[in-house]
């Protein structure tokens, strides 16, 4: 076999491998999705901060001390967390859809479906775990639980998308583990850093790496 034929065969194999990798992975996530999610996360953390400050002030003044008052605070923070998640998700979908539309690629394919399933399983388990913590009044572990299970979701889903997302997941898990051993008063700051700052940094890196 001539040298030219060998090189041609190797090039063909590389092209086939590249095509198989593209079909097996959802490679069209938008960096703007991360920037959007991080920005929304920071805004949500800011709103929660003022709600908690108001509650603490009422505690100092002796206005709120019963379990009913804690449940009322929960009813304020839980819908806020859900709203932030939905807005972040919708924005992320929009930016990714726009990127795929420009590239002429379908956003719903076998790779994206596998990615969602693999993301969803740890995420759903984490949601149940966090709701159980809230129900039992174990607020000090809520922030860490959110970060750890979200990070595990990203790591599990990274098998079907860009590998960069795995490193974001690892950072979220590490941050959540740190939160288990520090004062509960820092929980919101860790939440803001994990879901806000890290997402923005990740989004910028993704944008510069894949979209510039």
From TrEMBL:
Signal peptide span: none
Residues passing through the membrane, by range: 26-50, 70-95, 116-134, 140-158, 165-182, 188-207
Residue ranges that the Swiss-Prot or TrEMBL entry lists as coiled coil: none
Alphabetically ordered keywords of this record: Membrane, Transmembrane, Transmembrane helix
Top-rank taxon: Bacteria
Protein name as catalogued: DUF308 domain-containing protein
Source organism of this protein record: Taibaiella lutea
């Amino acid at each position: 076999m001539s040298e030219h034929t060998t090189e041609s065969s190797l090039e063909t194999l590389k092209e086939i491998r590249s095509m198989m990798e593209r079909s097996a992975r959802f490679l069209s996530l938008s960096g703007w999705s991360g920037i959007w999610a991080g920005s929304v996360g920071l805004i949500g953390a800011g709103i929660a901060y003022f709600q908690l400050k108001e509650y603490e002030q009422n505690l100092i003044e002796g206005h709120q001390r019963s379990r009913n008052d804690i449940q009322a605070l929960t009813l304020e923070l839980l819908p806020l967390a859900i709203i932030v998640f939905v807005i972040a998700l919708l924005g992320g979908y929009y930016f990714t859809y726009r990127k795929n539309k420009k590239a002429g690629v379908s956003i719903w394919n076998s790779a994206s479906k596998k990615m969602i399933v693999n993301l969803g399983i740890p995420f759903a388990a984490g949601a149940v775990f966090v709701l159980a913590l809230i129900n039992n009044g174990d607020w000090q572990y809520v922030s860490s639980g959110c970060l750890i299970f979200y990070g595990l979701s990203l790591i599990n889903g990274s098998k079907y998308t860009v590998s960069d997302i795995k490193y974001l997941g690892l950072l979220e898990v590490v941050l959540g583990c740190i939160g288990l051993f520090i004062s509960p008063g820092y929980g919101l700051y860790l939440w803001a850093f994990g879901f806000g700052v890290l997402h923005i940094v990740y989004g910028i890196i993704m944008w510069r790496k894949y979209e510039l």
